[in-house]
Amino acid sequence: MFRPETGKHLYELAQILLRSESPLTQAERELIAAYVSYRNDCTFCWSSHAAASRCLYGDEKNIVDEVLKDMQRSNVSDKMKALLTIAGKVQILGTEVKPEHIKAARELGANDREIHDTVLIAASFSMYNRYVDGLATLTPTDPAVYEEMGKRMVKGYIMPPQTTT
Amino acid sequence: MPHIDLKNDLPGIRSALAFSPQTAEPLGQLAEILLRSNEGLTRAERELIATYVSYLNDCFYCHHSHGEIACIYLDGNSQLVEQVRKDFNKAAISEKLKSLLAIAAKVQQGGKFVTETHIEKAKQNGATDRDIHDTILIAAAFCMFNRYVDGLATNTPKDMSSYPLRAKQVAERGYGNHMYTEKQPTQTI
To answer: Looking at domain A4-154, which CATH architecture does it have?
Structure first.
């Protein structure tokens, strides 16, 4: 890792946002991460977070690919559709989130915490995606690599030990 | 009015940090390392990158807040900060910083917009790998912070005299949790 001191906090943030307590399930949070990364065209991020989300959805794993293909026509719940809509607006820009998007999510049962977590996950992936692609990091092309990565990610986001050379 | 009940009346990102202290911790530490380090890029240069990206993201609270912090590190040269926002190519800054700001602008559009040519140019102007890394991560991080602040429609103080006061607090004490746990700085008359 090029700079472990920033890496540490980036891992901590992902661990809290995607694995710690939240009214949203881990599968749903990984789906938001994959959806935003897909919209940002970040292959490494969307492939790996989609794999983690599929793993967490288990029998319902098809939801992930349905959402990436056409969110509105997917079998995800209406509440999640409203939250993914907010995430999609955040992906464009924060000011794109309008009161009507929030109102729609609330009417479908989303609470303040869920809206907060959705906005921050979408915002943070607007960072992670740019960090990964801005440095042109290595992007594997073999889907099997991502499947394995997804399984590891489900266990948590812990920074790999640093080897000193 | 903010989109959700943040349970406090703090301005901008401070209100979001107070609402969610668990995520505030790594966010604050990330800002501290990226903006307060003096290795390679100076604090003024780091804050100028943050200001510029926030300006491009149309985040009023962030670009004014970081603009004021940059201004402190630049001994009050607010004209320079404004020049960087409006047209950094004409600003009295180093060629190295100009090429790093060009990279930051590409990151703001999307990671893939950064090309070999931008990186080469920055290197020719004396930027190290570390400078380029930090520029990309500052720009990426502000694409997060700006979206967090505006995506929740946090309070944006309209009283412009409040910005230098908060800026002074950050310049003196950094990006710690005092920003949202302690009383907000006010003008002493």
So the answer is: Up-down Bundle (1.20)
